[in-house]
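Sharing a chain and its predicted structure for anyone who wants a worked example. Both blocks are below, sequence first, tokens second.
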Amino acid sequence: MLEVFSVTGPIYITIALGYVATRFGLFQASDMRILGRYVLYIALPMLLFRALSQKSVTEIANPAYIGVYLAGTLTMVLLGYLVVRKLFGRERMTAAVSAMGMSCPNSGFVGYPILMLVFPSVAGTVFALNMFVENVFIVPLLLVLAERARGQEGHPLKALGGALGRLALNPLVIGLAAGLVFSLTGLQLPGPLAKSVDLFAQSSAALSLFVIGGMLVGLPVTGLAGRVIPVVIGKLLVHPSIMLLVLMIVPVLGFAPVETPFREAAILSAAMPVFSIYPILAQKYGEEGFAAVSLVATTAVSFLTVSGLLWYLAL
């Protein structure tokens, strides 16, 4: 267990440092937004570009992993939406936003730093594959559900087109696409540019965790427990359980199994807390308070659940 905490400890110590530094005035909450924009718009796109551009297509192409991660996450979207909508009797908007929280892990700010500590040889590739699945398939689907619930962009194809249009301008998607182009063509950046990309990419891990901690300061934490608890359970426990189940079913159905360490990385990725832009996306639908509380709760509880999962995977 001490080995597990040696992995998760630095992650959550860095998050705690960001919280303390902001809570006691060394940084302001507005500073975290600025640092967060740097991570989202510069550091993480550079990381994605580096992870893909420095590998051949054969190293990146992992249809088995993509299929399993997509199937597991889509199942979580459907299950989360139906449970909140039918079992708890919530309105469609609440179900859509809740499903987003249950199925969209923090692959960049928390997942990648943990993968770097546990599976450094495949961390960059797994991060890129996760970003591909989440940005191309999962987030557009969830935005369509939310738009339909709001009564805007009535036709599903119109809603999907709007979601894809916004994603096409996302720096993470641009970094992903640029990295794939370089991988496919064999292009290489000149030395100075390549070293500059490395510097920006290397800054993403610690700074992203620090920002997460700073973002937790001042967020509301009361009054929404009844809605937040299902998101916490769905994101931290159900999503990785579904991923494990899919990994077990795939070989039985005759498909190629996901090999170690990608197998463990898929489960671990699904166990990450809610992605950091959750409140930003939910703000458009008037659900930013609920999303912010869910972000706080899943980030805090994930210290225990992720540590437990790492202990289980180490057995």
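Comments welcome. Residues 123-150 form the longest helix (28 residues).
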